[in-house]
Here is the input.
Amino acid sequence: MTDSERNTLYEIMGGAETIRRLVEAFYPKVQKHPLLAPLFPEDLIPVMERQYLFLTQFFGGPPLYSEQYGHPMMRGRHMAFPITYERADAWLSCMKAAMEEIEMPEDLRDFLLERLKGSAYHFVNTPDEE
Here is the structure.
């Protein structure tokens, strides 16, 4: 078994520091996106902290989100917001741009985005407007 096979994605990404940088690069893009901005509060600090906790856990780091908030139940937590496929695509686009901004290696970025696609599309609860 190679070292990379023993490491979690969290460790391969660079751990807490990289997750923090990713979240900090991601949310300014969300705030500027016309489809996403209306879904978020003006004060993004609490949202950013929850995202940091969740992504830490999601990518194999310590279970910070569960320790603070219980089971993630992310689909249920997002049901109050009209999430369309178009918004899921926009969210993924902002995440990709954030990964590029922090200079995440392309192969790792592509792998992580593929993992995030499952969650992004799982949250869809509203049809796209025609």
User: Anything to note?
Assistant: Residues 57 and 63 are 5 Å apart (CA to CA). DSSP finds eight helices and no strands in the chain.
